[in-house]
Structures are given as structure tokens and as C-alpha cells.
Design a protein that fits this description.
H-NOX domain; Beta-Lactamase; 5 domains; six-stranded antiparallel barrel
């Protein structure tokens, strides 16, 4: 019969006994003969068939040479080393008779093959009947295993080995196996029996002496009997007190351990909930995995951790995140993947993923037979000896694997660790599934936006790509201003759709090669309001709800001269101010039917001239900062210092160089944020005065001479007045003079930087 009847814990007890007393036996060979896998034994929820258990026992008897090893294993299964906290409860039950009731219930979790019934016969004897379930065929060694288990229960209390009579046996024709278990009496019970005997004897003697009239002897006997009674009473009371105290101590120990376990479970649940709440705010897979790894590293007591996610084809597990590994080990991990599409693969990771079961492996040698030569070599290189792996499940399918191990602390991995990790793994699975759904919707949403934007640009080959370029500039400005991600996303979408109202402008006007008439220009101006009207019909929600107003206001001007509503300054949404700058610059530098593109320097100068009147000054500054970092342009053009040349004369680059300075009679130490031949920004909390002369000493790299220069403070960025929000506190310096040959070294450094293709001025 192939029904799975025996929990893997039974085999686990045998294996622990083998390792303790029969170390010469190869456990892997024994399990292989019984068609058992080490990871199945490690899985506390796995069940084996009668045939597997029979083969295991037969081979074990052969290898150990001990025909009574089943009885020995039974004793071991109830030993203090094995039953742990349960032992404290057994000891707390005040005697074996009460303990058998508990063990009777506990053994039911180890086997489905039989039912147990316990009946108390006396204070020091019980009868236990074991009846096989219908259709189950047991073997004689299982009777011996039970006898050993019953013997261990009695000896746990400090008694001598009990007497176990196997009165009836199913292998001798009975319907059940019946066991009569008796043990020596406790001290208190022995004293009670002695007291009863002495009392009975006294009563008999007293009756005889009374009949004989021997009153003097009766009185003498009474004087002798009373101290003996008191002595026995004291011995009984002391014995009972000691037995009760021992029972209470064990119960308290068990309660403390149980409370400790409850506290651990509560903390695990609470931490799982906290992780769930944190991850619920993440909307993409990368953020989720990075956050989980950070939490595991900071909150859990594991030395190392890994997260594998199945690839889209679901034929391999790919490493996505981890902690605790050296760079060399991480390179090894990145180079390996676990194949899921090979039926012959029996590795623990693959089985855990396929069967959605966690595993605790405390000795890698136990599963060596299930590892390929390559896997064994790999495990040795990264130093793994014991580990836990848990499947990451989303819905009803596995999507990845979570694994941890300890190599520095050497803390033994235990069952409670599995519970904790399974809780975390389930949260990861739900979060990744939600993120996948959100990412799919975002991709769909973005594709629709791209189509809408392209449908407008496609009406005219000359304006193709206009919306995407405006969006690129707008996002760059947002980044410079340090706007939150949600606000950046809203402005990005508004920039993509800012010209959608042009769908209502006739081609004859939109593509006109000459100057527009007043009437025609009036029609063109309507596109802003039409954009707002059309987009307001779209069900934009959440962070996108203000898109219609922002996109419809991108032609408003700071001084109120814009359209369609003539809004001024603070009345204009920030997103509209940003799109206005991006749209204006892209329009004047692009080719149109009625004019050629404007050269870069005049275009930049026009934008600079409109700062503070037509365009928001901070937004213009942010655009210039962004453009300086991402495009080749002159410092003069970007800072509004004529004449303009259109060549790269003094590049402005990001630089975190060490800087010391003297200004206003004070000496300070700081670092630079950016630098050019014309100036630098010095990041410091030191208070300085605008216009003050300053001496700079800049260390670009360890291999270049110190740059010495004099200049003046031309602008300030204080924590209370951030002129440029994307910069830290500090001050901008205009360099007036270099000392010695240091200008040559700075020039060489700047030229070397720009020749590498690095973005100018990026942080």
C-alpha cells in the first residue's frame, strides 16, 4: 500500500541516534536504499510510506548489527535531547501516569497508521492499546519502537526502567497491541504505604491488647506509635512537597519557554506585518527587493541572504538581490543559475521551488548525493554548510526563492527561523505580484501616452519628436529642482500631452510656411485651452489628477501676458512653468516651416532675457544647470555673460574636491560641488559675505598639485535662503586669478574630464 503514514520526524530521530552512537553508518547510503531524500527528512511536514520505513529499518539493522535498535530509537525519541519543551510539560504532569495521557496525544502527530488509547490502572501502572487503522500493515519492529518510547517516558521522571508487558499483539492474532506499563512507586507513595501498613498493624495489636486488658502495654505502644506516625507524616509531606515543587519548576520552565516561543512568534508576525506595510508603498520590483534585503540585513540575525526570482520563461532561477557576501562571492553568485526545466534536477532549491516547500539543511553533506559536482564545488567556494530556503509564492505559483545561512555567528538554524522566513516570503510574493500588475498597467499607460503624443507630432514631419524633447527637458528641470518622484511623474505626463489640443488646429495653419495672420494666430492659441478640455475628459486619478490644468497652462507667462487665462506668477502651476521653459527652448532651436532653427547661444540668451518676466527665474536657472550637465555649451551662454561663442571654452563639471578657503578673516574647510576655469561652488555651512574676496586651495585628486586661486563670492546658498534648491548650503566663487602654474593643471584636468564623455556638471 502506498499511503503516506509516517511523519519524517520518526526517521529524523533514527538519524540523530545513528549520528550519536553509530557514526560508522553512512546516512546517505541508508536513505538512498529506502528511497528517501535528505531534504524530505528535513521537511517536518513530509510523510513516508510503510514500504519506505520498512526498507529503512531492515537496512539499519543490517548496518548496525543491533536487532533491538527500534527499541533503542524509541527511547531516544523521548529523551531530553529530542523532545525539548515537551519534556518540561511531561515532567510537569506529576508522574508518568499523567504524562502518558500527554504523550498519547503527542504521538498522534507522528503517525497516521494507528490510534492510541491510554487507561490508568493504578498510580504506577497504565494500559495502552494501539490499534492499526484499516488497511494498514505494520511490522514487529514498530512494537519494539513503541516499547522503547514508553520506557523513555517513565525514565524521564528519574525512575528505573519500567516493566513493559506486551500482553496482546496483532502479530499474534489480536486486533490491537496492548501494553501494560508499570514502574516503581514514588517516595511519597512508598511512605504512604508504609504508614498504612504500620497503622493497620497498630490497630490489630491495639485490639488484641484491649481484649487482653494489657492497658500498660497499650499505652507504651501508643507512645511508640505516635512519633512514628508523625515521622512518616513529615516524610510524606516533604516527599510530596519536593515532587510538587519539581513538577512546578518543570511547568514554570516549560511555561517560560512557551512564552518565549509565543513572544518569538509574535515578534515574527509583527515584523512580517511591518515589512508588509513598508512594501505596500513600493510599486516596482527593484524597490521591493532592495528594501527586503535591507530589512533582512538590519532586522534578522542571519549572516547572509539571497533572493532568486524565476525568469519570464520560468526555466531558471536568477539571483536578484543579496547581502553578506564578499565581492568575489557575489561574482560567483551572479554567474550561476538554477535550472527549473530539467526533470532530473533534484537539488533542494529546485525542489523547494517546484513543490512550494521550505527546507532547513543543517549539514550540506547530508544532501551531497543530490548535488552535482559543479554545485558541490560552488557551495564550497561560497562557504555554505547549512541553510534555509523558502519558496516565494504569488497566488498559486512559485515565483522565486529566499535563502539564508550563518557562517560567522555559527548560530544553529532552527524551525522557528523557517516560520519567520515563510512569513516574509509570502509578503514578498504578494508585493511582487502587485508590483507586476502595477508595472504592466504603467507600461500600458505609457504606451497610450506615447501614441497620443506621437499622433500630434506625426501631423508634421518638422515637429516630429517635439513632445518627447519637451518632456526630456521638463524632467531634467524637475531633477534639478529636486522635486518628489510623484510630482516629476505628473509633470512628465503633462509635458508629453501639452500640445494635444493642436488636434483641433487645421493643417493649413499648423503647417503654414509664412507668418501667421492675427486670426490664424488666434486659432493656434486655442490649442492650450483645447488641451485642457480634452485631457479633463480623461479619468486622471491620484498623482495625475492635475495634468489637464498643468498641460493647459504651459503658455502662461509670469507677467500675465500669456494665454489662455492670463495667469500671473504664483497663479501658474509649477509644472506649467517648467513645461513653458522646456517648450520655448525646444521650439526656437528646432526647424519650422516659417524659419530656420535659432543658434544655441542666441537661444540661450533669449531664455535668459525672459527670466523673471516671461519665465520663472528658478525654473530657468534649473534648466541652465541641467543643460550644462547634459549638453556641450559655453559657460558664458549658460551664465548670461556675453560675448557668446558657441564653442566649449570653459566646461563646468561636477567635482567633489577638497577645498580650503580664507574669507572675511576666517579659514574654512569644505568640498566643491562643481568647478570650471571661471569659478566653483564651495559647499559649506560657514557664513560669508557676498562680494568678499576669497582665497581658494583646491585638491582635485591625490595625483595633481593643489590649485591656488583668488576670487570673490558672487552668490550665496544658505539653508534659510536656497537660491538654487538643488545645491547644498555654500557659496559660488568667481575666480579672478590663479597662482603660479595651477591654472594649467586645472585646464588639463577639465579637458581630460570632458574628453571621456562624462556628462558635464552631473552629480
Amino acid at each position: 500500500m502506498n499511503t503516506h503514514l509516517y511523519n519524517s520526524k520518526i526517521i529524523d530521530y533514527y538519524i540523530k541516534l545513528i549520528k550519536q552512537k553509530y557514526s560508522h553508518i553512512n546516512v546517505n547510503d541508508l536513505l538512498k536504499f529506502a528511497d528517501m531524500k535528505p531534504y524530505e527528512v528535513a521537511d517536518q511536514s513530509h510523510w513516508f510510506t510503510q514500504n519506505q520505513v520498512d526498507r529503512f529499518y531492515e537496512k539499519l539493522v543490517q548496518l548496525s548489527g543491533n536487532e533491538h535498535i527500534a527499541r533503542e530509537a524509541g527511547r531516544y525519541a523521548a529523551s531530553p535531547d529530542v523532545i525539548g519543551v515537551m519534556r518540561q510539560y511531561i515532567l510537569g504532569s506529576i508522574g508518568p501516569a499523567n504524562a502518558f495521557d500527554l504523550i498519547n496525544k503527542a504521538t498522534l502527530s507522528f503517525t497516521r497508521s494507528a490510534t492510541y488509547e491510554s487507561r490508568r490502572i493504578s498510580a504506577n501502572s497504565v494500559e495502552i492499546s494501539v490499534t492499526p487503522r484499516e488497511g494498514v500493515t505494520e511490522k514487529p519492529f514498530q512494537c519494539q519502537n513503541r516499547i522503547g518510547f514508553f520506557e523513555a517516558i517513565v525514565t524521564v521522571f528519574g525512575y528505573k526502567l519500567p516493566r513493559v508487558e506486551h500482553a496482546e499483539c496483532i502479530f499474534k492474532g489480536a486486533k490491537s497491541c496492548r501494553y501494560l506499563i508499570s514502574w516503581e512507586s514514588s517516595r511519597s507513595l512508598t511512605f504512604k504505604r508504609i504508614g498504612v501498613g504500620i497503622s493497620s498493624l497498630f490497630v490489630i495489636i491495639a485490639l488484641v491488647l484491649t481484649v487482653m486488658g494489657e492497658w500498660s502495654l497499650l499505652i507504651s505502644l501508643l507512645y511508640l506509635f505516635v512519633p512514628i506516625v508523625f515521622l512518616l507524616a513529615a516524610l510524606i509531606a516533604t516527599s510530596e512537597k519536593n515532587e510538587l515543587k519539581a513538577s512546578l519548576d518543570h511547568t514554570n520552565d516549560a511555561t517560560d519557554k512557551l512564552l518565549e516561543q509565543i513572544d518569538t512568534n509574535y515578534n515574527n508576525t509583527q515584523m512580517t506585518n511591518e515589512i508588509g506595510q513598508i512594501l505596500s508603498k513600493c510599486t516596482n520590483s527593484d524597490d521591493i527587493l532592495a528594501l527586503v534585503i535591507k530589512i533582512m540585513k538590519n532586522r534578522l540575525d542571519f549572516d547572509r541572504g539571497l533572493i532568486f526570482i524565476a525568469n519570464p520563461e520560468r526555466n531558471r532561477l536568477i539571483l536578484q538581490a543579496g547581502f553578506g557576501y564578499s565581492p568575489e562571492q557575489r561574482d560567483l553568485l551572479d554567474s550561476v543559475s538554477f535550472h527549473l526545466d530539467r526533470p532530473e534536477s533534484k537539488g533542494v532549491f529546485v525542489v523547494s521551488f517546484r513543490e512550494q516547500r521550505p527546507f532547513l539543511i543543517n549539514d550540506l553533506n547530508e544532501i551531497e548525493e543530490n548535488l552535482s559536482k559543479q554545485s558541490r564545488a560552488f557551495a564550497k567556494k561560497i562557504g555554505t554548510q547549512s541553510f534555509i530556503c523558502c519558496p516565494i509564492i504569488a497566488g498559486d505559483r512559485s515565483i522565486g526563492l529566499l535563502a539564508v545561512d550563518n557562517i560567522k555567528t555559527k548560530r544553529t538554524l532552527v524551525e522557528s527561523d523557517i516560520s519567520r522566513l515563510m512569513g516574509i516570503a509570502s509578503v514578498i510574493g504578494i508585493s511582487l505580484q502587485n508590483a507586476e500588475l502595477i508595472e504592466a498597467k504603467v507600461r500600458q499607460f505609457n504606451s497610450v501616452l506615447q501614441v497620443l503624443a506621437a499622433s500630434i507630432d506625426a501631423r508634421d514631419s518638422l515637429t516630429a519628436g517635439h513632445s518627447e524633447k519637451v518632456t526630456k527637458y521638463s524632467v531634467g528641470i524637475c531633477n534639478e529642482l529636486g522635486l518628489p518622484r510623484d510630482e516629476r511623474e505628473m509633470i512628465r505626463v503633462a509635458a508629453l500631452l501639452h500640445d494635444y489640443g493642436k488636434i483641433g488646429v487645421p493643417d493649413a495653419i499648423l503647417k503654414k510656411g509664412g507668418k501667421l495672420t492675427t486670426e490664424e494666430y488666434t486659432i493656434v492659441m486655442t490649442h492650450a485651452e483645447k488641451t485642457r478640455e480634452i485631457l479633463s475628459r480623461v479619468n486622471f486619478e491620484g498623482i495625475y489628477c492635475n495634468i489637464p490644468e498643468i498641460a493647459g497652462a504651459h503658455h502662461e507667462k509670469i507677467d500675465g501676458s500669456g494665454y489662455p487665462k492670463g495667469l500671473m506668477g504664483p497663479e501658474i502651476p509649477l509644472g506649467a512653468k517648467i513645461i513653458a521653459v522646456a517648450d520655448y527652448f525646444e521650439a526656437i532651436t528646432a526647424n519650422r516651416h516659417y524659419r530656420d532653427p535659432m543658434p544655441l547661444d542666441p537661444a540661450l540668451q533669449l531664455l535668459r532675457d525672459g527670466s523673471g518676466t516671461l519665465f520663472d527665474e528658478q525654473v530657468v536657472d534649473a534648466f541652465f544647470n541641467y543643460y550644462a550637465k547634459t549638453h556641450t555649451a559655453t559657460t558664458a551662454a549658460l551664465h548670461g555673460n556675453a560675448p557668446l561663442s558657441g564653442t566649449l571654452r570653459s566646461p563646468r563639471i561636477p567635482n567633489q574636491a577638497r577645498v580650503s578657503f580664507r574669507v572675511d578673516g576666517k579659514t574654512g574647510f569644505a568640498h566643491s560641488e562643481d568647478i570650471s576655469r571661471g569659478g566653483a561652488f564651495v559647499a559649506t555651512d560657514e557664513t560669508v559675505t557676498e562680494g568678499s574676496p576669497v582665497e581658494l586651495f583646491i585638491t582635485l585628486t591625490e595625483n595633481t598639485p593643489k590649485i591656488e586661486a583668488t576670487g570673490r563670492v558672487v552668490w550665496l546658498n544658505t539653508r534659510t535662503a536656497l537660491k538654487k534648491p538643488n545645491y547644498p548650503a555654500g557659496f559660488g566663487v568667481e575666480i579672478l586669478e590663479f597662482k603660479g602654474m595651477t591654472e594649467r593643471f586645472l585646464t588639463s584636468f577639465l579637458n581630460g574630464y570632458t574628453s571621456t564623455g562624462c556628462p558635464q556638471g552631473s552629480h
